Amino acid sequence: MTDNTALLLIGYNRPELLLKRLTEIAEMEVRHVYIAIDGGKESHTTNMRRSLNEARSLLLDKTTLQIIHQKHNLGMSKHITKSISYAFKSHNSLIVVEDDIELNKYFFKNI
Question: In this structure, are residues 3 and 92 in contact, taking their beta carbons and an 8 Å threshold?
Fold first, then answer.
C-alpha cells in the first residue's frame, strides 16, 4: 500500500454508525479519508450534520478529509460508483468500506 492509498467510507442515513466508524478510523494510520453520504432529506438531519462535524474534529489533525454529501438520493449503485470515481481522480488505490462494517485499528495497515 502506498502513501497515496485512500479510505472511502460509504454511508447514507445512519449517523450513529458513521460516528462508530469514524472513531475506529481515527485510530488507524490512514492519511486520506473520504466520507460519502448519499443524499435526500433523510440524510441532511441535525444528527448527520453533528456526525460530519465530529468527523472533521476526529480526523483533520492527522489526515486529509473530504466529505461528499449528495444533495439528492442517488441510490446505492450511483452513489457508490460516483464516490469511487471521485476518489480515483486523486488516488490510484482505494479501500472502500460501508458504515455498517466494524473495523479495528489495524484494518487499513493490514488490508
Answer: no
The neighbouring-strand residues paired with 94 are: 6
Q: Is 7 helix (H, G, I), strand (E, B) or coil?
A: strand
Residue 35: Cβ-neighbour burial (10 angstroms; 0-12, 13-18, 19+)? buried
Digit-coded pLDDT (tens) for 11-24: 988 899 999 999 99
What is the 8-class DSSP label of residue 58? H
What residues have CB less than 8 Å from 53, skipping those under 6 apart?
none
- pTM reported for the whole predicted model: 0.90
Q: Which of 11, 6, 18 is nearest to 64 (CA)?
A: 6
C-alpha cell at 11: 454511508
Strands 64-69 and 32-37: parallel
